């Protein structure tokens, strides 16, 4: 069960992060829309790194190095998820305000 969830999550977040990265760097895209898309990319990368960290705890032989690496990956993934969500919401609010003002 865990392997199906893990593999699906890793593939989905990897594909999403590559898609959002390419989409945000297109020519002619509005800067706020680009930053909003980069926030989505950071969310996808946060999920990916968090899943990598969680996967370290599924191995039989848990030694100190594996636990430290897993905790660092979890910390980095959660921070990336938090900051990506914060940036996405901040730029989405600015984007909506600008589109209302311009319309």
UniProtKB/TrEMBL annotation:
Membrane-spanning ranges: 6-22, 43-59, 65-83
One Pfam short name: YtpI
InterPro entries reported in the protein's UniProt record: YtpI
Keywords: Membrane, Transmembrane, Transmembrane helix
Record's keyword annotation contains Transmembrane: yes
Descriptive protein name: YtpI family protein
Native organism: Brevibacillus brevis (Bacillus brevis)
Upper classification of the organism: Bacteria, Bacillati, Bacillota, Bacilli, Bacillales
């Amino acid at each position: 069960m865990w392997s199906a969830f893990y593999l699906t999550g890793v593939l989905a977040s990897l594909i999403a992060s590559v898609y959002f990265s390419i989409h945000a760097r297109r020519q002619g895209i509005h800067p706020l829309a680009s930053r909003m898309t980069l926030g989505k990319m950071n969310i996808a990368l946060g999920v990916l790194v968090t899943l990598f960290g969680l996967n370290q705890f599924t191995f039989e032989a848990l030694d100190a190095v594996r636990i430290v690496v897993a905790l660092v990956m979890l910390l980095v993934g959660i921070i990336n998820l938090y900051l990506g969500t914060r940036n996405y919401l901040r730029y989405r609010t600015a984007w909506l305000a600008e589109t209302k003002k311009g319309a």
